[in-house]
Each structure stands twice: as structure tokens, then as C-alpha cells.
Design brief:
Layout lengths: L1 H14 L5 H13 L6 H9 L20 E4 L2 E3 L2 H10 L7 E5 L5 H7 L4 E6 L2 H13 L5 E5 L12 E6 L8 H5 L1 E13 L2 E11 L2 E10 L10
Parallel strand pairs: 3-4, 3-6, 4-5, 6-7
Antiparallel strand pairs: 1-2, 7-8, 8-9
Helix pairs in contact: 2-4
The structure holds S-adenosyl-L-homocysteine (SAH).
S-adenosyl-L-homocysteine binds next to strand 2, helix 5 and strand 4.
């Protein structure tokens, strides 16, 4: 009798709806769509990825506010609108092979993984990189491969990439990333000084020609190097 009761309760709990579903829907419709993101695959992914599972448990209730949140080690999970916008900028397609620099919580990697074929992601802080890799594995993202390293050098073994998403602000585009980009590929990257005067840029490679375009002012944590 006891075990049947236990089974019923566990079944009921497993059928319980995601408690944050309404908040997540509001985040997508009220901020992301309202602010101009229209790519259907990106919006679908933002509706699917549970941001509350990528932030520390004690701040899970703030997970669907449109702002960055602390994830430890002085780092932040990016603002949802910016994650959606950067994903839209690369015009993601199902067959894409994408490199991300700055795994952080793994949220941006998950948003990409819902859309593209393969995501490779690099984090310089071992504790964050290892935690994100475990989280992504637990959530079932089989198409994300993570490593701990200085992302400045990219990940040539899995390149060339259709797109590269950099989620920390650099003074300039690391040349190895340009080398690992496919012809016709795009890099989206915040360029500027730590915590100030940063601009989100999109860099396109067409043959020997490199074009750059400024998108909007942003604030990202700094791109650091191993020696820092
Ligand atoms: N994309 C992340 C955002 C994390 S903030 C998310 O969705 O949560 C940016 C991250 O970039 C930080 O975790 C920081 O440690 C990392 N980072 C900074 N410089 C780096 C480098 N040279 N190589 C790899 N990661 C770097």
C-alpha cells in the first residue's frame, strides 16, 4: 500500500508543470520579441531552455528577469535579450558547427545547441567550465562539447566553424578565431575595455576580405588570458 502511494506521489510530481513556464514565456514575449528578435528558431530555443537551471539555486526566482546574474568567480550569465540577439546575429542553421568562447553557466551553449548541429565551448575558469559541462550533460545536450582552456586560441581540431560567439569583452578579435572561421562565416564579439565602452560587433569573412559592423553598446565581463 505504502509503495503504491509513493508511486502515485512521484508520478504526480513528475507531471507537475514547470513552475517557471509562465515567467519564461513572459521573458520571451515581453522583452525578447518586443525588442526586435524575430528568428523563429531562436525564439523557440529561448522558450525551451530553462534559464533557472543555469543560475545558483538561491537566485532561481530571478532567472527570467532580463538582466545578467552572478554565477560565481566574478562572472555572470548574460542578459537573456543579449543571448537571443547574439544567437540571431549569426543566423543559425541546423547544419552549423559553432564555437563559443566563455562557457560560463552553459546557458548560451544550450540556446545554440537547440538550433545547430554541434557546439564547442571553451571556458578559462576550471570550476565554471567543469560545472557547466556537467550541467549540460545532465540536461541531455549531447551536441555540446566543453573544455577548460584559454579561448584565445580557439579549438582548431573541430573547425572550421560556421560561426563563433564570444561572450567576454576583448580588446581585439583574437587572430586564431578568424583563422578557424569558415569562408562566409561570422564572429559575434563584444569589443572594448573591461566593463566600459564596449560595442557588440559582427565580423564576416568573405575570402580574404574581412568586414566589421557595430551593432550596439554592451557591458560584458572581460576576456582574460591565462597569465592574468
Ligand atoms: N556564455 C556565458 C556567459 C558567461 S560570462 C553564459 O551563458 O553563462 C563570460 C565567460 O567568459 C566567463 O565565465 C569568463 O570566465 C569566460 N572567459 C573570459 N576570458 C576567457 C578566455 N580567454 N577563454 C575562455 N573563457 C573566457
Amino acid at each position: 500500500m505504502k509503495s503504491i502511494l509513493f508511486l502515485c506521489i512521484s508520478l504526480l510530481l513528475s507531471f507537475q508543470k514547470d513552475p517557471f513556464e509562465r515567467k519564461r514565456e513572459e521573458m520571451v514575449s515581453q522583452t525578447i520579441e518586443k525588442n526586435g528578435v524575430t528568428d523563429k528558431a531562436v525564439l523557440k530555443s529561448m522558450r525551451a531552455v530553462k534559464r533557472h537551471l543555469f543560475v545558483p539555486e538561491d537566485i532561481a526566482s530571478s532567472a527570467y528577469e532580463d538582466r545578467p546574474l552572478p554565477i560565481g568567480y566574478g562572472q555572470t550569465i548574460s542578459q537573456p535579450f543579449i543571448v537571443a540577439y547574439m544567437t540571431e546575429v549569426i543566423k543559425p542553421k541546423p547544419e552549423y558547427n559553432v564555437l563559443e568562447i566563455g562557457t560560463g553557466s552553459g546557458y548560451q551553449a544550450a540556446v545554440l545547441a537547440e538550433i545547430v548541429k554541434e557546439v564547442y565551448t571553451i571556458e578559462i575558469i576550471p570550476e565554471l567550465g567543469n560545472a557547466a559541462a556537467a550541467r549540460l550533460k545532465k540536461l541531455g545536450y549531447r551536441n555540446v562539447t566543453a573544455k577548460v582552456a584559454d579561448g584565445y586560441f580557439g579549438w582548431p581540431e573541430h573547425g572550421p566553424y560556421d560561426a563563433i560567439v564570444v561572450t567576454a569583452a576583448a580588446e581585439f578579435v583574437p587572430p586564431p578565431l578568424l583563422e578557424q572561421l569558415k569562408d562566409g562565416g561570422k564572429i559575434v564579439i563584444p569589443i572594448g575595455s573591461p566593463f566600459m565602452n564596449q560595442t557588440l560587433m559582427v565580423i564576416e569573412k568573405k575570402g580574404k576580405k574581412i568586414t566589421t559592423r557595430s551593432l550596439m553598446p554592451v557591458v560584458f565581463v572581460p576576456f582574460t588570458r591565462e597569465k592574468d
